[in-house]
Each structure stands twice: as structure tokens, then as C-alpha cells.
Amino acid sequence: MSAAPKVLTQVDEDLRRATITVLRERGWDGLTLERVAEVAGRARSTLWRQGLSREVLVRALVGELADDFRSTMYPILTSGGTGRDRLVRALEALCEILERHLPLMLATDEAFHQEPAPGEPPPYLHPFIQFLREGARDGSRAPGDDGVGAADVVVNAVAWPYVHLRGRHGWTAEKARTRLVGVVLNGIVGANASAAKQRRKERQ
Question: What number of other Cβ atoms are within 10 A of residue 99's Cβ?
């Protein structure tokens, strides 16, 4: 997975926060340089002279997200283990990525759908498709579809509940990550049974 081209124009933290605020207010279609400048307390003409545009602001956010995803997933993609083992590590890593970009994820549920760079498709399902297919081949997960649909479900079943539980319910990162990955992989009964087994083991 190659890294997205870097945004050369500097987008400082105040502008990042202002961009996220506008995304929360208006969504991607309503994101304009003028509104970002207004929220940041700066003149649009000043931002324009600095080489900033709507596209630069978007790339700063989604390009950073994509780069973080790639660099976080690469060690898992090159590690050993069964398909299920690597799927577990990837889902836990996904939660860590979401945590680092939580303000953006709370502002919009479409960040994963944006192109990291012009003409570059979002990379977010590929590792999960690979791990699910490997799990079906090595027997560490039940056989099913080819992995594409399952990966879409698994990623979304972890990502957006994690964001909601962290941002709206005040769950800790560890609690949200552990509960969600357990439920998605094992189901409610399987997760509860595993937890009960672990508690019995600790009491022995």
C-alpha cells in the first residue's frame, strides 16, 4: 500500500479544527474555504494567498487518515499468524486509528469514503478482505463469501459504534475496543461465554 502524496501547503491545527467544525455543520458538500476562514477567524484572501484551498484542506485531513491507516496496518500485513489472529489485530488497530482521528470521525461518517488523493481509491477494506480470506482458507474462521462483503460489515460494525460509544457515551477507549471487537468476532453469546470463562479462570 503506497503512501498518498503529501500536502505541501501547511495546514495548521487551528485550520484543521475549523475544517472539522464546518464538516460537522455542513458536511462535505458544504465545506468551503470561505466558511473555514470565518470559523478560524481569518480572511479568505489570506488563506488563498498562502496556497490554501478547499481541496488542500480536505487532503490534509483524509490524506493524513489514509497515511496513518497504511502505516498502522503494514506491520500486521507483514506479520505471522492465522487469518483470524491478524483480523483481531487489525480490528484493534482500527480502533486506535479512530481514536487518533476521533474529532474528524465524530464530525462526519464519510471520511473513509473520500479519496486520499485525486484518482486514488480509499484503501480501508483491503487488509480486512485479505485476513478474512486467509481465515477461510486456514480454517480459523467459518467459510462464507469471498471476504469483500464480510470485510465491509466487520469494519463498519466496529468503526462507527466505536466512534459513537467514545464520543457520545463516554466509554473509555479500552472498553469500547475490547467489547466491540469481541462482539463482532464472537457474537453476544460467544463474547459473554469467553468473558465468563476468563473470570472463572482468574478465580481458580
Answer: 15
8-state DSSP, 56: H
What CATH number was assigned to the domain covering residues 62-203?
A: 1.10.357
Question: Which three cell numbers, joined as nine digits, stand for 154?
Answer: 466487520
Instruction: Decide: residue 44, CB within 10 A, 0-12 exposed, 13-18 middle, 19+ buried.
Output: middle
For the chain, residues with pLDDT lower than 50 are: 2-8
Percentages helix, strand, coil for the chain, rounded to the nearest 5?
70, 0, 30
pTM as predicted: 0.85
**Per-domain boundaries in the chain:** 62-203
Chain Cα centroid distance, residue 88:
15
- Cβ neighbours, 10 Å, residue 175: 13
